[in-house]
Amino acid sequence: MSTASAANASTSAGPAGRHASGRALLEVRDLVVELPVEGSLRPVLHGLSLSIQPGEALGLVGESGSGKSMTARAIDRLLPPGARVRGTIRFDGRDVMGMEGPELRRFRTEVAMIFQDPRAHTNPVRRIGDFMTEALRTNEGVPLREAEHRAIQLLESVGIEDGPRRLRQYPHELSGGLLQRVMIATALLTRPRLLLADEPTTALDVTTQAEVMAILDELRREMGLAMLFITHDLELAAAVCDRTAVMYAGRVMEVRVSSLLHDDPLHPYTAALAAARPRIDATLPRLAAIPGRPLSAFEAPADACAFASRCPYVQEECGRRQPELVELDGGLTRCRRAVELRGTLGARRA
Amino acid sequence: MRLRFLLRRLAMLAGTLLVSSFVIFSALFLAPGNPIAVLSGGRSLPPDAVRILEARYHLNDPFLAQYWLWLKGALHGDLGISIALREDVSTLIASRIGTTAALVLYASLLILLIGIGLGLAAGLRPGLLDTSVLAVTAISAAIPSFVAAIVLILVFSVKVRWFPSLGNGQGVFGTIHHLTLPAVALAISSLAIVARVTRASVREEFRREHVQTAVSRGIPHRQVVMRHVLRNAAIPITTVSGITIASLIAVSAVVERAFSLNGLGAYLVAAATSKDFAVVQGISLVLVTAFVLVNVVVDVLYAVLDPRVDLGARAR
Amino acid sequence: MIARAEPGVHLGRRSGLGILRATGPAGIGSAIVISAATFLAIFGRLLAPHDPNLGQLAYAYVGPLGGHPLGFDGQGRDVLSRLLAGAGTSMLGPLAVVVISIAVGTLLAVSAAWRRGAYDAVVSSGLDVLFAFPGILLAILAATVFGAGLLAAVLALSVAYTPYVARVLRGAALRERAQQYVAALEVQGASAISICLRHLIPNMLPLIVAQATILFGYAMVDLAAISFLGLGVQPPNADWGVMISENQSGVVQGYPLPALVAGICIVLVVVAFNVLGERLYEQAQPERV
Ligand SMILES: Nc1ncnc2c1ncn2[C@@H]1O[C@H](COP(=O)(O)OP(=O)(O)OP(=O)(O)O)[C@@H](O)[C@H]1O
Ligand SMILES: [Mg+2]
């Protein structure tokens, strides 16, 4: 397998040298996750590696089913029962996979998760106040009054003024956008060091999306939090993240400084994704869809490039060997022809 | 808000009882033959008795007036006279209601303690216990009370002679002793159903996304189970337990017959067989009232447990 | 944005056999038990080796003998023959209850969901009142008014079960009514009845079948209970519930076999209907599993 060198590449390369000073806050290497499906194990992550520096925001984009949510869940040790995991996950140098009991719970208070569907992810029979302060009270023994006081302060900073009233309400009495802001405030309440945000705005309507995104981005920068930001939207990831990782079939295909991702991608898949996004400023004759159907990790061949079946630049050699994740132009790419194609894949040229 | 909900629910209760009492009363007039013949169960009565019946039931008044007078009497505890036993129906009911109440209460306790207990254990611990609870409850859910009764009598009073097979018993311990087999027979299928629903609800709540949220925030497992899984599972568990317990009220007739208990249900069946109409009406009214009351309690509990219930709308 | 997979608009309808296969070994085993019971219900009387009503008092509570593998009941009648002959009424009664309550319940549910408004309110509150009457109590009332017998019991239970059927199906019908294809058909000028008969009800069919299956078990227990109380099937007609009540005294005297075998038959059939019904229910609403 190629994974050893890929991991080296991703860690030693560093995020374009900008955070090269300290060690990574989160480091995932060769992560393989298999889930039980009808009695047999089916891979959903296939040697995934990534790293996040303290205070850095890393975007994670990819088509539906590529394994973005599973990545976040694997990091927070929230995989469904029966899942088999290999590889290493290190948080602040500590081995996450070996954690048990109180240590695991302490780790989880340092890593906060924001979910896509705030309605489903809040207990419908508990009040907002209870929901927000539960972790503070149980894990840190903060008295109810103080916990509520801090909750009200944070609600204010996410733009909810009437905190005391909101704390008495139930989730079904709040709109989706409001509830997602409560979620963000709740996630920040325990002062975590890493946010795992899994499509935090997808379930909201467009105007609310922008508001919530702005609040999240601003607070994160203010508090110096690191973030793994999961989204379908390449442009959105580019707007809020320092670097962006592109996933396909349970693998990372490319990692690149966000500003370069759209106009100068390293991997044909990234280029295809960028071209498939409808643009307001460019009137294309027809939306460029990626030909073929996205493969799930379990469908992708182990001994070939996962994207080979849909790639316009495919060569015979691509079907023989899985390319490694290698450094190029300050980013990482998993394409045999990356050097050859560099500079020609920009979205506007596609 | 809560008070309005309660008042609303009580008004619905009154409406339901009014309509069902009307149904029970008018059944008398659905029966073939004139009301006197129906009330006397076809016996020929001396003219005096006929006159007493006519006066009691106001048989010469218009139908609705008769109903109204009957209902008024019922509200004052006057349910007419049993032709067969020549006694006040309310006196007869009063002397028998204790047995039925004790039986249903005993069975309810078994259902709540054992049924929910088994369901929780199976729901929280997958594995051998879970599998065996599933298999045992699948079968016992299908055991009718009278089949359970003969098996229990066969095993516990014919073979090992631990419990009596018939009768009511004296004193608290005597009553418990005599009512144990009947209560088990009455409870067994409901107990299995409650256990299965409890197990399924616990499982379902465990899979909820908000439980994942709690876990992701480092809440200890015990607390996740108590505050999120069980707290939320309590809603369907309460509803199903309540509805099953309400259904025991009617089934108690079968168990009372099987164990020759001197309760309301057995009396109702005897009266139905001998066409003692006043008694059938009186007991039906009592049983329907109890049944509806338990259902109201379930509705109110549901509203208390689930804040999403729209307290202004009709409960469901 | 990357396109998400669209959920299928129209789920393909599966064949009955395909659905049954999907219920797993427990479901298939239950279906076999139910088929066997149905076979006995139809042909039991012909298969009975002896006259089920011929009593020879000299043989009262005599155990298994040659030609009489289950022995004799308290009146000296062949237990196996009564069991076989009783399968008919024991299965026919519940079948009638299920057919009536499902038919009426579906009609009420679909019409209420279609018309909504005042009609729906009237139907719903009418059903709410019926909820106040447990099936057995209604059957006792019916037996008092019309005299004991299977017909009164079947009608009473049908009335008592209808609100349960209607409540579940009304919810399903409302969901189905809100589907876009219904609006599309309406715009094309299809009549309400044709939409309901050709689309709405067929789409609800898995749920209706699951309901009917579960209801059959309940109806069998309740009808047998009513017969046990002496208010349903009248002796000397053979019926499993009647057999238990006739031979209860035998249990106390140490001759439990006649009552027990009848009880076992009831439990076996009811378990089969419950298990199959539960599986079919899971199939009918896959999102809830
Ligand atoms: N509980 C599960 N058991 C088995 N397979 C699962 C389970 N949950 C998800 N999967 C599979 O794992 C793969 C990755 O799923 P994941 O939810 O991580 O995708 P995603 O990239 O987050 O997609 P989306 O953009 O739709 O959220 C998918 O192919 C999915 O079918
Ligand atoms: Mg996802």
Characterise the protein shown here.
The complex is a heterotrimer of chains A (350), B (316) and C (289). Helices cover 34% and strands 21% of the residues of chain A. Chain A is α/β, with parallel strands linked by helices and 350 residues long. Chain A starts with a helix and ends in a 9-residue tail after the last helix. The relative contact order of chain A is 0.15. With 316 residues, chain B is mostly helical. Chain B has a domain of 213 residues: MetI-like (MetI-like fold), CATH 1.10.3720. In chain B, helix 5 packs antiparallel against helix 10, helix 8 crosses helix 10 and helix 9 runs antiparallel to helix 10. Chain B is flat and about 80 Å long. The two termini of chain B are 17 Å apart. Chain C contains eleven helices and no strands. Bound molecules: adenosine-5'-triphosphate (ATP) and magnesium ion. Magnesium ion binds next to helix 2 of chain A.
Shape of chain A: globular
- Helices and strands of chain C, in order, run as HHHHHHHHHHH
Beta percentage of chain C is under 5%
Number of individual domains of chain C: 1
Approximate strand percentage of chain A: 15-25%
Please give the count of helices of chain A.
Answer: 12
CATH topological fold name of chain A:
Rossmann fold
Unreliable spans of chain A are: 1-21
Q: Give the second-level CATH assignment, the architecture of chain A.
A: 3-Layer(aba) Sandwich
Major β-sheet annotation of chain C: none
The kinds of small molecule bound in this structure are: adenosine-5'-triphosphate, magnesium ion
Separation of termini of chain C?
31 Å
Highest-level CATH class of chain C: Mainly Alpha
- Secondary structure class of chain C reads mainly alpha
The total of beta strands of chain A comes to 12
Distance between the termini of chain A: 32 Å
Briefly characterize the structure.
The complex is a heterotrimer of chains A (350), B (316) and C (289). Chain A has 350 residues and is of the alpha/beta class. Chain A has 12 helices and 12 strands.
Task: Supply database-style keywords.
heterotrimer; B: MetI-like fold; 77% helix; flat; C: 289 residues; MetI-like fold; elongated; disordered N terminus; binds adenosine-5'-triphosphate; binds magnesium ion
Can you lay out the helices and strands and say which pair or pack?
The complex is a heterotrimer of chains A (350), B (316) and C (289).
Chain A (H helix, E strand, L loop, with lengths): L2 H11 L12 E12 L2 E13 L4 E6 L5 H8 L8 E8 L2 E2 L5 H10 E4 L13 H13 L3 H14 L5 H6 L7 H14 L4 E5 L7 H18 L2 E6 L2 H7 L2 E6 L2 E7 H4 L6 H9 L49 E3 L2 E3 L4 H4 L9
Parallel strand pairs in A: 3-8, 3-9, 6-7, 7-8
Antiparallel strand pairs in A: 1-2, 1-4, 4-5, 9-10, 10-12, 11-12
Helix pairs in contact in A: 4-5, 4-7, 5-7, 7-8
Chain B lengths: L1 H29 L4 H5 L7 H11 L5 H13 L5 E2 L4 E2 H36 L3 H13 L4 H15 L11 H36 L2 H8 L4 H38 L5 H10 L3 H29 L11
Antiparallel strand pairs in B: 1-2
Helix pairs in contact in B: 1-12, 5-6, 5-8, 5-10, 6-8, 7-8, 7-10, 8-10, 9-10, 10-11, 10-12, 11-12
Chain C lengths: L15 H7 L1 H24 L31 H37 L1 H14 L4 H12 L3 H28 L2 H8 L4 H37 L11 H7 L1 H6 L3 H28 L5
The structure holds adenosine-5'-triphosphate and magnesium ion (MG).
The site of magnesium ion has 3 residues of chain A, from helix 2.
